[in-house]
Every structure is written in structure tokens, then in C-alpha cells.
Amino acid sequence: MATRQTNKLQIPVDISRYVVVYGLQKAFAIFLYLKFHSSGKIHKDAPAFHTIKKDLGINTNRTYQKHFQKLIDLNWINLSE
């Protein structure tokens, strides 16, 4: 049985509430962006990393790194070397 692929992502209300309560909106936006632009694994030189700041309205590398590091600290994403 083949699974049907869709452009929709369902987000549980509990996660949405957690994101708002702890002020993780930008970090969560990065997480969702990566979710939509990869199959779960993405190389650090992938085009998504070059366009993510512009597409999400993040102006500086420092701001981006802060939110990206927050995702790592929360164990929502992992980096492998």
C-alpha cells in the first residue's frame, strides 16, 4: 500500500502552546522550514541553509545561530559530523 505525500504538516496543540509559552516562535519557524525543505537529513551546505534567513526575515547570522542553537539544546534537531 503506497502512502500519499502531502504538503501539509499537522502540529499538535501542545507543541504550539509550548512554543508560545517559552517564546520559541523563530526557532520553531526554522524547525518547520527545515522540515519542509528536507527529508529529515540535510547537509550543512544545502541551499535551504542559504535562503532560510531571508525567507524567515532573520537579519543577522548571530540571531539565526541563537535560534538554531536553541533547537539543538532542546534536542529537536541533531548535528552529525
Description:
With 81 residues, the chain is mainly α. 54% of the residues lie in helices and 0% in strands. It has four helices and no strands. It has helices at residues 13-21, 25-36, 47-56, 61-73. It starts with 12 loop residues before the first helix and ends in an 8-residue tail after the last helix. The model has no long low-confidence stretch (mean pLDDT 85).
Structure described in brief:
By secondary structure, the chain is an all-alpha fold. Helix content is 54%, strand content 0%.
Low-confidence stretches: none
In which range does the helix fraction lie?
40-55%
Shape: globular
* SSE pattern: HHHH
Strand and helix layout:
Blueprint: H1 13-21, H2 25-36, H3 47-56, H4 61-73
Helix pairs in contact: 2-3, 2-4
Pick out its properties:
single chain; 81 residues; mainly alpha; 54% helix
